[in-house]
Amino acid sequence: MAASTTNLSPLSSHVSKPITNKSPFYLFPQTLLNPLSFPLKPLFRTHKLHCTVSSKNPLADFFPANKPDPEPSFIPYFTDDDKPREECGVVGIFGDPEASRLCYLALHALQHRGQEGAGIVAVNNNVLQSVTGVGLVSDVFNETKLSQLPGEMAIGHVRYSTAGSSMLKNVQPFVAGYRFGSVGVAHNGNLVNYRTLRAMLEDNGSIFNTSSDTEVVLHLIAISKARPFFLRIVDACEKLEGAYSMVFVTEDKLVAVRDPYGFRPLVMGRRSNGAVVFASETCALDLIEAVYEREVNPGEVLVVDKKDGVQSLCLLPHPEPKQCIFEHIYFALPNSVVFGRSVYESRHVFGEILATEAPVDCDVVIAVPDSGVVAALGYAAKAGVPFQQGLIRSHYVGRTFIEPSQKIRDFGVKLKLSPVRGVLDGKRVVVVDDSIVRGTTSSKIVRLIKEAGAKEVHMRIASPPIIGSCYYGVDTPSAEELISNRMSVEEIREFIGCDSLAFLQFDSLQKMLASDSQKFCYACFSGKYPVMPKEVKVKKVGDFLDDGLNGPMDSIDGGWVRGLKNIDVEKEIDPLYQQSKI
Predict the structure, then answer these.
(1) Per the record, what are the reactions this protein catalyses (predicted)?
(2) Range in 6-10, 301-305, 313-317, 399-403 the model is least confident about
(3) Cα 460–465–467 angle (5° rounding)?
(4) How confident is the model over 295-340, as pLDDT tens digits?
(5) Cα-to-chain-centroid distance, residue 318
(6) Burial class (CB in 10 A: 0-12, 13-18, 19+), 38
(7) CB–CB of 520/322 below 8 Å?
(8) Element (H, E) at 123
(9) Which of 162-166, 357-361, 399-403 has the highest mean pLDDT?
(10) Tell me: the pLDDT tens digits for 105-153?
(11) Model confidence over 351-372: pLDDT tens digits?
């Protein structure tokens, strides 16, 4: 049974002195494709340029290092342990009498973006009511819980993070009260100046209840002197640096905002009754029968209420967008449209490019399910070789398992993936996967396929080698743990034990994206960061966990390694870029 909480607008601490560094903003009209019942109301003001962004690299583990297993054979199981992890997904709905139930369904569609916690905040009679819990959406919510969330407006959140005794307090959406009312927020991304903002707020008297960077947003809104409310959000967001796609809810408004670089996705749609829907991916819109209209633009704030309909504001001018390319490689579902592109079509083309640039004589093409399937289909179609299901994935493996006393080699992978001997035995097999991070899972998969009788195993990876950590809201290991940052392609091939190995070429990826190529962030492949990380420190594996932090911020320094501010940037970053060009 998943732990969960229900609460009504807990009060946030009041801060006596505001943080300075205010800047004006620019508001501009946007044309909606299908306005229906909510017209778009243009607003106009001026703004000065302000676009400083840095970021952090959160490394998450599932159990505290100092907490022993309940029993020796009780082993934590990590789903897709060797993959980067998207941190969360958000949903916002305005103008539907079943807002919370639709939000619940939309969160189901976004479950792949976070499986550790879920929550919904609904507004009824000007009261914000919240239900949050640890576990999958279906674990947290039932008919009784949803009946506690009436109203025509709701926001929701699914979260990937660590497990631990204090995890529940960090499950979003967060709700807080301040002197003019209550506000709820759900956030996808990383605020990289979190430590600086938190220190400033605490100096002014703020008391923090969580270790989440999202909580600083509520404090900034509470201390803002701007009027009306949505200008408080603008005022708060102007102080934030990093990646954020957020939805807010108040007694009468739904607000969606996206950071100036557009690192994380956020889309807008409408239902046939005119209800406005915001979500991290279009697959959430599809499930609740909302029609996709457009993306929330980088740097844009959209405000929805009954009086004025939808208002579009530009938070601040921004440079060229730097959207996360890994949304198309791994994170998003294939049936989603992300950054204006079909994820399915992108992955299919990745596979076609691999078949053209790295052909090999083979009898069958298989995928590492589920994220490698579409690229494998593209490879097989281009190569003229049959695609078959050589690996069957179990979707019913829990977060933990009990291993027999007699150890079984590669037990975790065998629980999740089962080889089909009839497909593999005596065959030359091409295995298509979306990425290689540490290489540990890939080596086990190759061994699994060879034990099933495969004569040859050729790995094809539908992304370039990952040589740099993400500082913009994705959970990736430190650069030292990334196998492509430590080994050449040939050395990786030897490590994972396959007969040949080829990655999607970085130049080919950019060529495929054509005129949109400059709009994506490739820092994990090139080591060239759109905005250099400065303040943020990077967590070590197995050290202090994000969800277990308590006490003053200084007490956690032992669990962090140096951020880029403290090292020679040219020495550390440029070699990564040079290696990627070899």
Answers:
(1) 5-phospho-beta-D-ribosylamine + L-glutamate + diphosphate = 5-phospho-alpha-D-ribose 1-diphosphate + L-glutamine + H2O
(2) 6-10
(3) 160
(4) 999 999 999 999 999 999 877 666 789 999 999 999 999 999 999 9
(5) 22
(6) buried
(7) yes
(8) strand 117-124
(9) 357-361
(10) 999 999 999 888 999 999 999 999 999 999 999 999 999 999 999 999 9
(11) 999 999 999 999 999 999 998 9
Q: Which residues belong to the active site?
A: 88
- pLDDT, mean of residues 255-263: 94
Rounded to whole angstroms, how far apart are CA atoms 328 and 334?
Answer: 8
What's the confidence (pLDDT) of residue 87?
A: 67
Residue 201 makes CB contacts below 8 A (sequence gap 6+) with 15, 19, 208, 216, 219, 220, 223
Q: Is the peptide bond before 203 cis (omega within 30 degrees of 0)?
A: no
The answer to whether 376 and 353 are in contact (CB under 8 A) is: no
Residue 77's Cβ-count burial label (10 Å; 0-12, 13-18, 19+) is: middle
Separation of first and last alpha carbons in the chain: 51
DSSP string, 253-273: -EEEEE-TT--S--EEEEETT
| DSSP 8-state class, residue 551 | S
Distance of CA 85 to the CA centre of its chain: 7
Burial class of 288 by CB neighbour count within 10 A (0 to 12, 13 to 18, 19+): buried
C-alpha 496: how far from chain center: 28
Residue 324: closest CA among 462, 185, 483, 525: 525
Nearest to 28 by CA among 244, 309, 297: 297
Q: How far apart are CA 96 and CA 102, in angstroms?
A: 9
Average confidence (pLDDT) over 164-189: 83
Greater model confidence, 241 or 535: 241
Report d(CA 461, CA 216) in Å as an integer. 39
Report the alpha-carbon distance of residue 410 to residue 461 in Å, rounded. Answer: 21
**CA dist., res. 183 & res. 224, Å (int):** 13
Q: What SS3 state is found at 125?
A: coil
Cα–Cα distance for residue pair 294/127, rounded to 1 Å: 30
DSSP assigned state of 67: S
The Cα 79–Cα 398 span in angstroms is 9
pLDDT in tens, 476-493: 778 888 999 999 999 999
Burial label, 262 (beta-carbon count in 10 A; 0-12, 13-18, 19+): buried
pLDDT at 462: 97
Q: In whole angstroms, what separates CA 350 from the centre of its chain?
A: 21
**Residue 450: pLDDT over 50:** yes
User: Looking at residue 398, what is its pLDDT?
Assistant: 59
CA distances from 526 to 237, 471, 503 (A): 29, 13, 14
- 417: tokens are 């993936």
Tell the burial category of 544 from Cβ atoms under 10 Å away from its Cβ (0-12, 13-18, 19+).
buried
Provide DSSP, 433-499: ES--SSSHHHHHHHHHHHHTT-SEEEEEESS----S---BSEE---GGG-HHHHS-HHHHHHHHT-S
424 pLDDT band, cuts 50/70/90, is very high
Helical spans, DSSP H, in 498-568: 506-513, 523-526
Whose tokens are 């507004």? That residue is: 123
**What is the bridge-based pairing of β-strands 500-503 and 520-521?**
unpaired
